[in-house]
């Protein structure tokens, strides 16, 4: 049992439970509807929140709802970037920050924990009220930060079928986050990835089975709360479900065409489980759901979805946050100010990454001043945010202890757990001619097909294989190489007794696709290992062997090196269906 569920309610909560809450059943629909209409709170407002509210101007209240991006580095105070952060934090008084990755030469660059912690301390000192800091730590802090445990993607946990491993992921992610000064983890992902062509969720989902997703979501929440010394906010996403889409909401407006019965049976099931587990917050999604909202508008700005369904029907009374508001699923329709106003009208509390924070604040201030948004409606959201900061203890301690970082981040236990899950997740879907494990490694060939020449993906796989089988031929290939270069590789492969091709791309372009086809025409059996996209096999249905890792993490590369050489077994089970090729739950031992 989660020991935190036995603690008394010492602090006021901003949601239906929280990191230190006693167990409480989700509010019945009638009670939730009454609370939504009257603004009634489950608990009185903390004194600290009242003190803060009495000092805030209208514009400062609105600013507390805004969370802006930063990149985890520590820019000099002489730089334009630092001056802009200082202005937004000190003068505008934004309520929080969220760490994102930079991308250089098409490669994601993670932040360094000590630099980020030092920067956050400077920002916390500059802020009149403590900042709440967030991070999309879906696979632990390693999704954004270097020097942290390299946990696999969520879908690997679905393949490993190990809820205790998911609990540990939640526990250690919470520890990593708080050690670095991050208080709000935008996890777990409650999307049900039941569309093989989904371009944005994929490996971020635990499974295509809503019951399995729900189990892992609850296990994660329980794990993140299992250490009473580590308090974080958790946010399930992307409500009401982003799994059955074929459009990336970063670039357009997806549509979920399912009827209400299907939504209840699939998309909404993990969110109901999360709410019953007293999750702190729910993140919206910028997509259309005609069965829930007849207007052609994103769910983020739909009162039918964010208030009537989420809060009144499902009984959620915690923090409601938007997905990033700079995504084109929203920006193509509204200005930054109008999007912010519509989100609050829909029932959202927190405005995450407005494309223009100043315009978002100005837009809401104008809406409140004109009466379009009532002062009472604004107060409800501001008090929720401030109460969350009190619950996290930020009014007492907001700075990071830099010298204690290594005690949490340099965890051999976490590294071992991450490696174990990566190995458990390896799923052998097909194995004709017993192509794997390799019978004579010194006569086989391993080709790594990465996305571009700057990528580090596949490097660890080669290192691990060379350490265990020095005579196995390996070659790292760039998918953007000219076609003649691929043809030369094919000629070299004619002498291989077996060919293993490790692919890291979501979808292969024309030249590497032809390359795989030419390899299949050769005399050696071909084994395809998909690190990024488990559905990649649909493009190559005639390969002799097919392995899905369900993650691109370095731990998955190390696991594959062991498995193809016979050091560990394949024992995963596919948490998704590969149409016409592999059923849900497929996997050979």
What is the third-level CATH name, the topology of the largest domain?
TIM Barrel
Instruction: Count up the helices.
Output: 21
- Helix and strand content put the structural class at alpha/beta
Percent helix, as a range, is 25-40%
Indicate the low-confidence ranges by residue numbers. Answer: 1-42
Strand content: 5-15%
* First-last Cα distance: 33 Å
Largest sheet: 8 strands, parallel
Oligomer: single chain
Features:
single chain; 589 residues; alpha/beta; TIM Barrel; Rossmann fold; 2 domains; 8-stranded parallel sheet; 6-stranded mixed sheet; 21 helices; globular
Structural overview:
The structure is a single chain. With 589 residues, the chain is α/β, with parallel strands linked by helices. The protein has 2 domains: 3-397, TIM Barrel (Alpha-Beta Barrel); 426-564, 3-Layer(aba) Sandwich (Rossmann fold), CATH 3.40.50.1700. The chain has 21 helices and 16 strands. It has helices at 29-38, 47-55, 58-63, 80-92, 113-126, 154-160, 163-180, 210-224, 260-265, 268-276, 303-313, 328-331, 336-346, 357-370, 375-391, 405-409, 412-425, 459-468, 483-493, 510-520, 554-564, and strands spanning 66-70, 96-99, 102-104, 107-109, 132-135, 184-185, 233-239, 281-284, 319-321, 351-352, 427-431, 445-450, 473-478, 499-503, 526-530, 545-548. The strands form 3 sheets. Strands 9-8-7-6-5-2-1-10 form an 8-stranded parallel β-sheet. Strand 3 and strand 4 (107-109) form a beta hairpin. The longest helix is centred in the N-terminal third of the chain and has 18 residues, at 163-180. Residues 1-42 have low confidence and may be disordered.
């Amino acid at each position: 049992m989660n020991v935190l569920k036995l603690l008394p309610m010492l602090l006021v909560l901003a949601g239906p439970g929280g990191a230190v809450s006693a167990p409480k059943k989700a509010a019945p629909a009638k009670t939730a509807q009454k609370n939504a209409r009257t603004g009634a709170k489950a608990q009185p407002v903390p004194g600290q929140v009242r003190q803060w509210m009495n000092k805030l101007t209208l514009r400062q209240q609105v600013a507390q709802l805004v969370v802006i991006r930063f990149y985890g580095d520590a820019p000099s105070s002489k730089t334009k970037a630092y001056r802009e952060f200082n202005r937004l934090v000190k003068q505008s008084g934004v309520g929080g920050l969220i760490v994102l990755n930079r991308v250089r030469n098409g490669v994601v660059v993670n932040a360094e924990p000590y630099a980020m912690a030092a920067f956050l301390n400077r920002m916390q000192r500059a802020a009149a009220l403590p900042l709440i800091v967030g991070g999309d730590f879906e696979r632990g802090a390693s999704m954004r930060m270097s020097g942290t445990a390299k946990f696999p993607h969520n879908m690997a946990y679905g393949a490993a079928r190990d809820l205790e491993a998911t609990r540990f992921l939640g526990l250690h992610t919470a520890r990593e986050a708080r050690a670095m000064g991050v208080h709000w983890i935008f996890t777990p992902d409650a999307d049900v990835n039941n569309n093989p062509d989904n371009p944005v969720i994929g490996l971020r989902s635990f499974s295509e089975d809503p019951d399995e997703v729900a189990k892992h979501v609850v296990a994660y929440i329980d794990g993140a709360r299992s250490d009473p010394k580590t308090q974080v906010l958790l946010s399930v996403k992307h409500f009401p479900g982003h799994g059955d889409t074929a459009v990336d909401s970063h670039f357009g407006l997806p549509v979920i065409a399912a009827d209400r019965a299907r939504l209840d049976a699939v998309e909404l099931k993990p969110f109901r489980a999360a709410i019953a587990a007293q999750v702190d917050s729910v993140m919206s999604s910028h997509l259309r759901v005609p069965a829930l909202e007849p207007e052609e508008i994103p769910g983020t700005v739909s009162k039918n979805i964010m208030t009537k369904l989420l809060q009144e029907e499902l009984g959620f009374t915690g923090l409601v946050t938007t997905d990033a508001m700079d995504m084109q699923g929203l920006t193509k329709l509204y200005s930054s100010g109008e999007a912010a106003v519509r989100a609050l009208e829909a029932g959202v509390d927190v405005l995450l990454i407005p494309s223009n924070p100043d315009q978002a604040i100005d837009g809401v201030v104008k809406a409140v001043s004109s009466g379009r948004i009532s002062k009472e409606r604004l107060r409800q959201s501001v008090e929720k945010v401030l109460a969350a900061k009190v619950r996290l203890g930020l009014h007492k301690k907001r700075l990071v202890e830099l010298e204690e970082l290594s005690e949490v981040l340099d965890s051999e236990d976490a590294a071992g757990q991450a490696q174990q899950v990566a190995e458990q997740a390896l799923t052998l879907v097909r194995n004709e001619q017993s192509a794997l494990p390799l019978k004579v490694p010194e006569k086989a060939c391993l080709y790594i097909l990465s996305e571009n020449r700057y990528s580090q993906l596949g490097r660890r796989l080669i290192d691990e294989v060379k350490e265990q089988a020095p005579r196995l031929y390996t070659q790292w290939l760039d998918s953007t190489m000219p076609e003649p270069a691929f043809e030369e590789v094919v000629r070299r492969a004619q002498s291989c007794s077996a060919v293993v091709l490790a692919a890291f791309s979501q979808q292969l372009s024309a030249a590497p696709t032809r390359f795989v086809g030419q390899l299949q025409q050769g005399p050696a059996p071909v084994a395809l290992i998909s690190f990024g996209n488990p559905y990649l096999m649909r493009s190559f249905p005639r390969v002799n062997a097919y392995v899905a890792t369900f993650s691109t993490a370095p731990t998955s590369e190390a696991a594959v090196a062991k498995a193809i050489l016979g050091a560990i077994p394949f024992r995963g089970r596919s948490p998704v269906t590969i149409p016409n090729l592999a059923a849900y739950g497929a996997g050979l031992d």
